[in-house]
Amino acid sequence: MQIEDTNKFIEVLHDGVVPATGCTEPIAVALGAANCMKYLSTKRIDQITANVSLNILKNATAVMVPGTGEAGLKVAAATGALIGDPNAGLKVIAGIKAGDVSDILKLAHSDKVEINLAQVPDDLYVDVEVKSGADHVKVWIAGNHTNIFKITKNDVTIFEKNRPEAHAKSPLKDFLQTKSLLEVWQFATNVSLKEIEFMQQAKTLNLALAQAGLTETYGIRLGQSLYRGSKDLDNQILAYTAAASDARMGGATLAAMSNSGSGNQGITATVPVCVTAKALQVSDEQLTRALTLSNLTALYIHAFLPVLSAFCATDSAAMGAAVGIVYLKTNDYQIAMKAVNNMAGDAAGMVCDGAGCSCAMKVATSVSSMLRSVNLALQGIVIPASNGLVCTDVDQTIRDIGRLGSEGLKGTDPVVLDIMLNKK
Asked: Which parts of the sequence belong to the Serine dehydratase-like alpha subunit domain (predicted)?
């Protein structure tokens, strides 16, 4: 592999696999609010107004804001404004303390916080304005959850860079779209271990979330209910992964190691690999390479999808886990290809109906599909290319999954949001 490709793959991992505290859609609003406060001379807040794209509103309506016990963008905006660290990226509200909650909820429940649907074509867009006395600061975010492209104070621009086009792809996504699953496999299994040792942090963070979900009361406690069942390896994988999502979406203040801007995708790409590695008693090097392979495969597949869409990308993240687990069990690329194609014939196209406690169910569905697909592939069975999205060439399968998410489900999100906002 050329050294330029190796360096790019490492850059992709550093960019796409990062710690995040809380669901990343409300966190983007919290980050905007925190950066508004950075430029105000007083902590007095007279008004917070946030305008967000459809997918941000859909994904933030029902999900808990960590440490607050409540859900929604008003709580996220208030949390970011009152206690947010503007320089902490996706960990903007990681410093929340129990003593902060009363003031946060008082502000969130007042008439000082307003959330609106922005009429923009962007998959991911946030603008937040905070007014304090005679001053007002506004922050704009687009393209990804932390990409601040403009800040104004009293209508004077104090920071600005090029605004991403509505459906623009980053240079790193462009790079991934020129690669193949085989190249991902070759990189992860041959790169110098020192270059990817940082991937071990994904194990540390996401297994801590799993432990919290198994021992505390978060979300719908799906992980706990599964854990009380059979103790075979497949069930342990399901239980630990669902438990991590329970904690993540149920308001735990622990950071997740995210993937493609999503904590649930990071959990799905990581936890099944870690549980498998423990059962197989593999070396630290094997686990590090498996985590790299899983997460980079998930990033590769997601490169063909919008940053946010109606496609539940825990499924593509579970395809990454499939590849990582096949590596641990057989180190056979041909079996990994079969596992991905089997998944494409199963749960691909699961609809994202917004973030919330039900995400643990979708995580479990994706992981269950992954386990079935790997087990079939290990037996030499692959769904024929005459079926649905499955293609003879696994990279064509992956590109067609991207088409499904980008084109086929384009009209789904507005319907989902309309249903969410107009329930009787």
From this structure: 186-417
